[in-house]
Structure formats: C-alpha cells, structure tokens
Predict the structure.
Amino acid sequence: MSRLALIDYGSGNLRSAEKALVRAAGGQVEVRVTHAPEEVLAADRIVLPGVGAFAACRAALDARPGLGEALDEAVRVRGRPFLGICVGMQLMASRGLEFGVTPGLGWIPGEVRRLQPTDPSAKVPHMGWNDLIDPHGPGLIAGIGASPMYFTHSFAFWPDDTADVAAEADHGGRFPAAVVRGNMAGVQFHPEKSQSAGISLLSRFLEWRP
C-alpha cells in the first residue's frame, strides 16, 4: 500500500484534511499525519496544509528540525507528488509579503500578495464559495472542471510565470486559485471543506502520476 504524508507543523485544518484524504483514499492509500523527516522521505505523496499568516506558518515549518530539508529532498530531488493547501500552497513561493517580507520555499518563483479587489463589495478576507475559472493543464486540476470551491484567505500566490497557474477565481479581480509545476501542485481553496468537488480533487491527487 502506498503512503501519504500529511505534514503536521502546527498550522492547518489537520484533522479535517486527514478525514477528507482518508475518505478520498478509500482504503487504498495509508494517510499518515507526521512531521518526522524520515517518514516524509519514505512517503509516496505529500500534502502540506496551512492556515493563518505566511510568516507564522513558515516559522512553524522551520521550527520542526529537519522537516524543511526532508520536504525539499522528497519533492524537488525525488519528485514525489506534492499538494499544498491554502498557505501550504503559498509557501511554495519565493517570498510572502504579509507583515514584511518572508522567504518561502522557493519551489515556484513568485510572491504572495494581499488581495486588492477593484469592487468595493468584495470584502477581504475572501470567505465562502467561489467558482474556478479556466481550470486547465494536468488532469489533476482540469478534471475537476469549474466547480465551486470553498475559500478563506486574504492573500494569494502570483507565480512569475503565468504558465504555472492552473486555475483562477474572481473576487473583485482574478487571482490564481491553483498552481501546477511538474510534480508540485497547490490550491488556494480548501478541498477538505469543498464537499464532493474537493473530495474529487483529493482523489485525483492520490492517483496523479506527474
């Protein structure tokens, strides 16, 4: 049985994500909640959740000895399929601009900036259901179509290369809702809160062969 490492670094809807992944796995993939570097390196797939401020999440990740190095080895060197959720997606960026400048993991060049809606009725934080626009690229994202997903965030990740954007959403202006580069994917929304559409995405990730 293949194994998925759901990263526990003290930030994220960990139990909700675990339950959703277990449901999506249907007993075919072992979902293990961990921050142990050796378990991350042994995993076949990795999911990094995240809720809160970019800088706080980065600090929490760095506070787990060896975890950042294990993630980099597993994802960038060994090519394990990776999914970042919300701030877990944002951490893939070069830097975050929330409460100052904080370096990200640097896996996909770009930066995390505050939403700036042009429509005054579009409040920040952006919370609630929103449709995906133009989901494309690998079947991981394209296959779920323009389904509504559940968002809760004030910042978003803008990659330097727009080819890395796999879907957008509109909240007084478009922003990237999903990114994909090689074996690395990230979603700004919360699939664990997005009912059947979110479970469908997680199921696709568990079968994804980038």
Notes: Residues 195-207 form the longest helix (13 residues). The chain has seven helices and 13 strands. The mean pLDDT is 95.
